[in-house]
Write a structure and sequence with these properties.
- The complex is a heterodimer of chains A (about 625) and B (about 250).
- With about 625 residues, chain A is of the alpha+beta class.
- Chain A is about 25% helix and about 35% strand.
- Chain A contains nine helices and 34 strands.
- In chain A, strands 1, 2, 4, 6, 7 and 8 form a six-stranded antiparallel sheet that branches.
- In chain A, a hairpin with a 4-residue loop joins strand 32 and strand 33.
- The radius of gyration of chain A is 50 Å and the shape is elongated.
- The N terminus of chain A is likely disordered.
- In chain B, the strands form two sheets. Chain B has a five-stranded antiparallel sheet with strand order 6-5-4-1-7. Chain B has a two-stranded antiparallel ribbon with strand order 2-3.
- In chain B, strand 2 and strand 3 form a beta hairpin.
- In chain B, helix 1 runs antiparallel to helix 2 and helix 3 packs antiparallel against helix 4.
- The chains are: A alpha+beta (about 625), B alpha+beta (about 250).
- At the A-B interface, helix 4 of A face helix 1, helix 3, helix 5, helix 7 and helix 8 of B.
């Protein structure tokens, strides 16, 4: 059976005073006898309401269910114009026929503003499963879907009802919110879970909503069930006492790939903020942003399969095998075709390449034809192997076996294709080396090591008791050595300070005497004492007498001992100035004497702190 | 005389044991050569039970598991071989081959697979060094750095001072890098032991009981950490940092 070809027949009314459109579509134009299908008549008007609607006669079908939904809106123009009404009416029918053959559904006709607008007719071809190889188990599976309400819900955009006033899969917001709905919270491995993403909005949808973050589907293989290009039609629904329009943003089939608790991530939807005309006056508007909630699905593992090593599939399945041609000469190419038909994740199905003695089998080509009638993914997966017979005789191609799991009953069904025979004539060829005959990937490991030292299990060096103390001893030793060196320097400095203490007292005494002499007005004595204090300070630091030295010799000595040039120059300048001033003591005021004393005090302090080299 | 007798017994006993272990190894090799990989696995594993933890034995065992199509075990023993001999290019190739073949098998079966399992950066940086090499490097470079630092004040010539300073900084940096490598190799700060799932679809449960609720499945070759073994089950930390239980036979420590 060929699954879903959505037949959309559209009849558009010409513009009268207002727009009116009526369309009729079917979920499939080719169905099996007894298989339910959906027909939808959609009427959209912008302005006047239709005066009359003539729905097609469906009496030759068994009516399994019908629904009508009427989402509508008002819009007001400028001034005293009367409001324009945009309305949409959707009539949904779930039908079934027991009569094989072509069934014509006559056009639906509406009359609006005195004009008649009609759709085109639909032709539904019903095929007898007995005569055309219906999918084993598919009919049974679809019978389980005969819940009319559920079926109609799938055909329309109507979201699932709000149970006891509470919403699942959403965080309620009084203006807009996003809702994720799964058709089952508990599924078997590989069973389809239909996920629908709704946008609930108060008022009309004036901007296109965008999904800024798609729901994550870790652990699922997914397939979109809605076309990329489509118009968003909302339906009214009351939630928490407020009327919302609910729009289907996404609908996809998700197939769990592993058992356990799998999560469908929270989506984020944005609406507006795209920059309309009003933005010119009011500035750019911010989009409304809403985040949905995560929804989890409990995935049950499949029970033990009946055929060890056979591929498994979840869902109804049928296998058909054929050879083209069935007779061939040695070396002629023969096509082995196996078609797997059914519903579920057929893309996950793989069949082993048959291994035939005397026949070379090339790698298969795989072709998928899938669709999603009534939101259930299914279709065909075709495997084509090219067989090259190398030996004459009748080669039997055994059945292909798949363990198909039925989630409804929780049991496996062993599905087999028909065995085939290939008659080969002609002289035999040398048989080509057998190719890898299964889908199991293999690799060449080895060669192995011919010798081994057969080392025993041992502790790593870093795990032995001595290792970390030995490593930490290095920085510890460095710290100790550094501390010891610093300590030694401090002790030496103190010792030197202790040795120089009497000399320093002498320097201080001379400075004090110079101060007293200055106070008495004895400038000559004061200047002499200051020069004497400065030289004493130098002698203390250098450890040798400097009294008899010339200025040049003293300067050389200071440089040789490593005194900082700046300090050395300052000391030499002060000594020179003091000597010069002694020859004109009367010219020194008390203030100048005081300044000279301060400068000498500072210089003696600097000399005491200066670092110099030891005498050679 | 008595001492000589004891020495003789110890020597002959030791030689006999060495011979028997080597016999096991050679029997494993002979089984591998005639494609009897099951027997080869048994022989090599009996060496492990006898306390042998050798890179070559682990390599041969990994090859035998790989030939049997048990790629989870192959990954486990190639990893162990590399841990014991990080410079072994053949083991590295074998590990890559086992991962790729397993990934291909999983992709065919499930439609998705993680083929490349990249190690953390620190593991990748130090992957060519053994933990003992890094430990010795740490010890030696740390002492050299300290020696140079202590020698620095004694140098009178400025050029020599500069050279010693640069040398001390260099060896100090090497010591730090070696310490980082030792930490990465010994997996400081990580709980449990590094392990690999060795059975496809190993069931993950909430408790150490087959009736405990099922949380999911782990793929063969997936890396986990074994926190403890509790009866027939092992408490593991999965890649998603989730604690759970798997059958002890479904997981193998490196």
């Amino acid at each position: 059976m060929r699954w879903l070809v959505l037949l959309l027949v559209t009849a558009l009314a010409s513009r009268v005073e207002a727009q009116a459109k009526i369309t009729m579509s079917a979920s499939s134009n080719r169905v099996s006898v007894g298989e339910p299908f959906a027909v939808e008549v959609r009427i959209q008007t912008d302005g006047d309401e239709p005066e009359k609607i003539d729905l097609p006669d469906l009496s030759e079908f068994e009516l399994l269910g019908r629904s009508t939904s009427r989402p509508f809106s008002f819009s007001f123009g400028f001034g005293g114009q009367r409001p324009r009404t945009q309305s949409q009416t959707v009539y949904g029918f779930t039908l079934r026929t027991d009569a094989p053959g072509a069934h014509v559904i006559r056009p639906a006709i509406m009359t609006v503003s005195g004009r008649r607008v009609a759709t085109q007719a639909l032709t539904i071809v019903a095929v007898d499963p007995a005569g055309s190889a219906g999918i084993q188990g598919v009919d049974d599976a679809l019978k389980n879907l005969n819940d009319v309400t559920a079926l109609m819900r799938r055909n329309s955009n109507e979201p699932p009802p709000v149970v006891n006033g509470s919403l699942d899969g959403a965080t309620f917001d009084s203006t807009m919110f996003v809702r994720t709905v799964v058709d089952k919270k508990r599924a078997y491995l590989g069973e389809q879970v239909t996920v629908t993403l709704y946008l609930y909005l108060r008022g009309q949808l004036n901007d296109s909503p965008s999904i800024s973050r798609e729901p994550t589907l870790d652990g699922f293989w997914s397939h979109d069930l809605l076309p990329l290009q489509r118009s968003l039609g909302g339906v009214r629904q009351e939630v928490n006492g407020r009327v919302f329009n609910a729009f289907v943003l996404r609908k996809f089939a998700a197939f769990p790939l592993r058992p356990g608790k799998l999560e469908i991530g929270a989506p984020t939807v944005e609406l507006g903020g795209s920059g309309g005309l009003m933005d010119l006056f009011q500035g750019p508007s911010q989009p409304l942003k809403r985040e949905g909630v995560k929804v989890s699905v409990d995935v049950l593992p499949l029970p033990a399969q009946p055929t060890q090593g056979a591929p498994t599939h979840t869902g109804p399945l049928q296998l058909e095998a054929s050879l083209e041609p069935t007779q061939a000469k040695v070396g002629d190419a023969v096509t082995l075709r196996v078609v797997a038909k059914g519903s579920g994740n057929l893309r996950g199905l793989s069949l082993p390449t048959p291994s035939l003695r005397g026949v070379e089998t090339l790698a298969p080509e795989i072709d998928d034809q899938t669709g999603s009638p009534l939101d259930r993914l299914g279709g065909e997966r075709t495997f084509r192997w090219l067989l090259l017979p190398r030996q004459p005789g009748t080669h039997v191609i055994p059945s292909f076996t798949v363990d198909a799991f039925d989630p409804a009953s929780g049991k496996f069904q062993v599905v087999r294709s028909n065995p085939l025979a290939l008659a080969v004539t002609g002289a035999g060829e040398e048989v080509a080396p057998e190719r890898a005959s299964s889908n199991e990937p293999t690799a060449q490991f080895g060669p192995v090591r011919p010798e081994s030292a057969l080392r025993r299990r041992g502790h790593p060096v870093a795990g032995q008791g001595w290792f970390w103390p030995a490593v930490l001893a290095a920085p510890g030793f460095f710290l100790l050595a550094t501390l010891g060196s610093a300590l030694r320097r401090r002790v030496l400095a103190r010792r030197a300070a202790g040795q120089n203490a009497p000399g320093q007292r002498e320097v201080d005494q001379r400075l004090e005497q110079a101060s007293q002499a200055g106070a008495r007005g004895d400038a000559r004595a004061a200047l002499g004492l200051l020069a004497s204090a400065l030289k004493k300070a130098l002698e203390l630091k250098l450890g040798e007498p400097v009294g008899g030295m010339t200025s040049r010799a003293l300067e050389s000595l200071l440089a040789a001992r490593g005194m900082e040039p700046q300090l050395s120059q300052r000391v030499m300048a002060q000594l020179g100035a003091l000597e010069t001033a002694r020859f004109d003591p009367g010219g020194q005021s008390a203030v100048q004497l005081s300044q000279a004393e301060s400068a000498v005090r500072e210089a003696t302090g600097q000399i005491a702190r200066a670092k110099i080299r030891e005498a050679a | 005389m008595r001492l000589a007798l004891i020495t003789l017994i110890l020597l002959t006993g030791g030689a006999a044991r060495a011979d028997s272990l080597n016999d096991l190894f050679q029997r494993g090799n002979a089984a591998f050569a005639r494609a009897d990989y099951e027997t080869a696995v048994k022989e090599y594993e009996s060496l492990g039970e006898a306390g042998i933890d050798d890179a070559d034995v682990a390599f041969n065992l990994a090859s035998a598991y790989g030939a049997l199509g048990r790629y989870g075990q192959a990954i486990r023993y190639f990893e162990r071989s590399l841990r014991l001999d990080p410079g072994d290019a053949a083991a590295r190739d074998g590990l890559r081959l086992a991962r790729e073949t397993l990934g291909e098998r999983q992709a065919r079966a499930r439609g998705e697979a993680i083929v490349v399992d990249r190690p953390p950066l620190t593991e990748a940086v130090f992957s060519f060094f053994g933990v003992d090499q890094l430990a010795w490097a740490l010890l030696i470079t740390a002492w050299i750095a300290v020696g140079l630092l202590l020698a620095l004040p004694a140098a009178r010539v400025e050029g020599i001072q500069l050279g010693i300073g640069i040398g001390a900084a260099l060896f100090g940096a090497l010591a730090l890098a070696s310490a980082l490598g030792v930490g990465a190799k010994l997996e400081w700060g990580k709980p449990g032991l590094k392990a690999v799932i060795v059975r496809e679809g190993a069931q993950v449960r909430e408790g150490p009981d087959e009736r405990a609720s099922l949380l999911g499945e782990l793929a063969e070759g997936e890396a986990v950490r074994v926190l403890a073994r509790e009866g027939r089950f092992a408490r593991v930390l999965t890649g998603g940092e989730r604690e759970a239980y798997v059958l002890g036979s479904d997981v193998g420590e490196l």
